[in-house]
From TrEMBL:
Protein name: DUF2231 domain-containing protein
InterPro entries xrefs: DUF2231_TM (IPR019251)
Keywords linked to the UniProt accession: Membrane, Transmembrane, Transmembrane helix
Transmembrane portions of the chain: 12-34, 41-60, 86-103, 115-137
Organism name: Pedococcus aerophilus
Length: 157
C-alpha cells in the first residue's frame, strides 16, 4: 500500500510535503495558540490541518520503510531510525492544538485560573512546535544526506 504509486516510490512523493508542511504547521499552530483568533472556527481549521500533516507524516514513515525493504533493508538506516518517532512528535503538536481549541470552545472566561491554563497550554504548543521543527530538520537532513551526500561529494562543479 505504501510502496509505489504510478511506478514511483510513495516516499519520494510524500516526504517533500512533510518536510515543508510540518514545520509550517508548527509555526502556524504556535502563532494561533498565543493569539486570540477573530473567529472560533479558525482553531478547528488549525486542528484539521495539523491532523492532515500528522497523517502525511505517518504515510511518509510507512512508505520510507517500504522503500527501505525494496532497496534491501540496509539503505538509509540512520535516517529511518531518526524518522521513527516523527509521527508521534507530529501527533503531540496535534494533541496540544486540540487541547487549546477545546479550552477555547468551552469558554475560558476571565478568571486567573483560566488565563493560567491558557498560558500553560500555549507553552505546551511552543514546546511541541520547537521539537517538531528541530526533529523534522534532523530527519530531512539525514534523508537528503543518504540520497545525495555521496553523489555530491563524487562530483565537481
Amino acid at each position: 500500500m505504501f510502496d509505489t504509486i504510478f511506478g514511483l516510490p510513495v516516499h519520494a512523493l510524500v516526504v517533500h510535503g512533510v518536510v515543508v508542511l510540518l514545520p509550517l504547521m508548527a509555526v502556524v499552530t504556535l502563532v494561533w495558540a498565543w493569539r486570540r483568533p477573530a473567529r472560533p472556527a479558525t482553531g478547528w481549521l488549525v486542528v484539521a490541518a495539523d491532523l492532515v500533516v500528522t497523517a502525511m507524516t505517518f504515510v511518509a514513515k510507512e512508505s520510507g520503510e517500504a522503500l527501505q525493504r525494496r532497496l534491501g533493508g540496509r539503505a538509509a538506516l540512520e535516517h529511518g531510525e531518526l524518522a521513527d518517532p516523527l509521527p508521534l512528535i507530529a501527533g503531540a503538536l496535534l494533541l496540544t492544538a486540540v487541547l487549546v481549541q477545546v479550552h477555547r470552545t468551552r469558554g475560558d472566561g476571565a478568571g486567573g485560573r483560566s488565563a493560567g491554563l491558557r498560558t500553560g497550554l500555549s507553552v505546551l504548543v511552543t514546546a511541541a512546535a520547537a521539537v517538531v521543527v528541530v526533529w523534522t530538520v534532523r530527519v530531512g537532513h539525514s534523508g537528503a544526506e543518504a540520497v545525495w551526500g555521496e553523489i555530491v561529494s563524487n562530483t565537481s562543479q
